[in-house]
Write a structure and sequence with these properties.
The complex is a heterodimer of chains A (265) and B (266). Chain A is mainly β and 265 residues long. Chain A contains no helices and 21 strands. Chain A folds into two domains: 75 residues, no CATH class; 154 residues, no CATH class. Chain B contains eight helices and nine strands. Classes of the chains: A mainly beta (265), B alpha+beta (266). The interface between A and B is medium-sized, with 15 and 14 residues.
Chain lengths: 265, 266
């Protein structure tokens, strides 16, 4: 077995492996021509366990396990469990609103759960599961216009060391720049997760590229920039998985409230 | 007798007449081919910028337009006086029009529906007392599949005249549950318990946030209302789950509700 859970794992016929990534427990068994994937959650959002355990026999699925079968090629015995970004944007609601003074910028650290993608060599995907399923939320100026996102709560930390290291969480360094002459009060930030990659840094955290949200001089517009690599805080970062969507950076959003807002839709 | 018929056929099919007939057949064939490809091209072109129903309508109109054009040109080639034929067709169409006002009304209503687009195929709509999933929007009528799997055909004229509610136009919907409670019930505790239940349920959206409030008083009871937002497609599941959840929460608080009602249309 390998040290990191996302490395390629060999599971021979009649054997199994158990992956623990935070609250998610995946038990993957190999039988004649199929994979059995049993998924369970411990329900503990701050569970910090991360391990891969080889099992000599195919275990019985737990009472609450969600089991799925995947037909595959007879000789296929290798797979990886890759951490990837969520499949929708993540709206992080700050526990307490933050006011950014005129013509200043601030970097806040926002955490979001990673999704786990089970994949055979050659990018043959079996399944994807959130390591911790966040609640869904609506983000937009009203209930007609907007998008479905995932919702997380964050303390909006300005100091990285205050953030607990969790194996099922990725951290984004979000710089918010207020170029206007008025202060900007925010209580939630919309992280464009589909456009981000997942990196692993020496500190043991998963990181995404640095994101810059810019309140431009024109009132109704906001600009978003996704960096080319992990932020400088993520020393020794190695990219593990890529983005779901590739969009050009520096795109102007129609509504200022599309990225960060204090108004409840 | 046989000789006479053969002779007449031989006189009819002169080389000039055969050439005209071949030319007319060629025009007809070419128009059929052109209508098939033209219709397909127009449908593809329109579907790139519009919805599927408009694309199908535009494709059909193009196909039939080209077929009619080819048919007219073929008749012209054979020496028919098109002006006279069109005149006769005009008189005929007025007569048919008077005889089939309902049909025309449905047809025109269908055109308005295509233009206005109050709903699309796949939407869940409510017309009059019928509600169901839209299967097709045709020129004469719209067809629905009701929730209990019945097929309903509604003339387009009726749709134009009646109130139509599109239940699935927007991605999210609000679910409303009301509970009748005794006047001495501890509203603060009930409110907290119901909000917690909403917060826990995975189908309930975090934002717009759930709300619990007293919406009215009766002689012996008060009405407590719970508003929850969810994805439109999850509405029925959340309705079933939260009705049971509310019942459970209130029993935990030893407040047996008088009744639990739910509505998503208010």
């Amino acid at each position: 077995m390998t040290a990191d859970f996302w490395d390629e794992t060999v599971i021979s016929r009649g054997r199994a492996a158990r992956f623990r990534v935070g609250p998610l427990v995946l038990t993957i068994s190999r039988s004649a021509q199929e994979w059995h994937v049993a998924r369970e959650s411990t329900g503990d959002a701050i569970d910090a366990s991360a391990s891969v355990e080889a099992l000599e026999q195919m275990p019985e699925a737990g009472e609450h396990a969600d089991v799925t079968r995947y037909a595959t090629l007879p000789g296929s015995e290798r797979l990886s469990v890759l951490p990837v970004v969520p499949d929708r944007s993540v709206v992080s609601r700050l526990d307490r609103p933050l006011t950014i003074l005129a013509r200043t910028s601030v970097t806040i650290y926002i955490g979001a759960p990673v999704w786990l993608r089970i994949v055979e060599p050659g990018d043959r995907r079996l399944a994807e599961f959130p390591a911790w399923r966040p609640k869904e939320t609506w983000f937009g100026p009203n209930t007609r216009e907007g998008e479905l996102c995932y919702s997380t709560r964050t303390l909006g930390r300005l100091v990285l060391d205050e953030m607990q290291i969790l194996p099922h969480r990725m951290v984004s360094a979000v710089s918010i720049r207020n170029d206007r002459d008025e202060a900007l009060a925010i209580d939630r930030v919309n992280l464009p997760a589909r456009r981000l990659s997942v990196y692993r840094a020496n500190d043991g955290r998963f990181w995404t590229e640095a994101v810059t949200l810019e309140r431009t001089l024109r009132d109704e517009f906001a600009k978003i920039n996704v960096g080319d690599e992990a932020p400088t805080e993520a020393a020794g970062a190695v990219r593990i998985s890529g983005p779901r969507d590739v969009e050009e950076s520096g795109r102007l959003f129609r509504a200022f409230g599309t990225l960060f807002s204090r108004d409840t839709p | 007798m046989n000789f006479d018929l053969t002779n007449r056929v031989a006189h009819f099919f002169t080389p000039d007449r055969i050439a005209e007939l071949a030319s007319a057949l060629f025009i007809l064939f070419a128009s059929l081919v052109a209508s098939r490809f033209g219709g397909r091209w127009v449908r593809r072109f329109v579907s790139a910028h519009n919805d599927a129903e408009r694309a199908v309508l535009a494709g059909r109109l193009t196909t039939w337009g080209l077929v009619l054009l080819g048919f007219g040109m073929a008749l012209d080639e054979l020496g028919f006086q098109l002006r006279i034929l069109l005149g006769a067709a005009g008189v005929l169409s007025v007569a048919i029009g008077f005889a089939s006002q309902t049909t025309l009304s449905n047809l025109i209503s269908g055109i308005f529906l295509f233009g206005e687009r109050p709903f699309a195929v796949g939407d869940i709509i409510e017309i009059d007392t019928v509600s169901g999933e839209v299967l097709s929007i045709d020129m004469m009528a719209t067809t629905l599949r009701t929730m209990d799997n019945r097929f309903v055909r509604i003339p387009n004229e009726l749709i134009i005249k009646t109130k139509v509610t599109n239940q699935s136009r927007y991605l999210i919907r609000r679910l409303e549950l009301t509970v009748a409670m005794a006047l001495d019930a501890d509203f603060a505790r009930i409110r907290g318990a119901l909000l917690d239940a909403a917060q826990r349920h995975p189908l309930c959206l975090a934002d717009p946030a759930p709300a619990v409030f007293i919406s009215g008083f009766g002689e012996l009871s008060m009405t407590v209302t719970l508003w929850l937002w969810t994805r439109t497609k999850n509405l029925q599941d959340l309705r079933a789950a939260m009705t049971a959840e509310v019942q459970g929460e209130l029993q935990k608080l030893r407040w047996v509700p008088g009744s639990v009602n739910n509505s998503a249309n208010k």
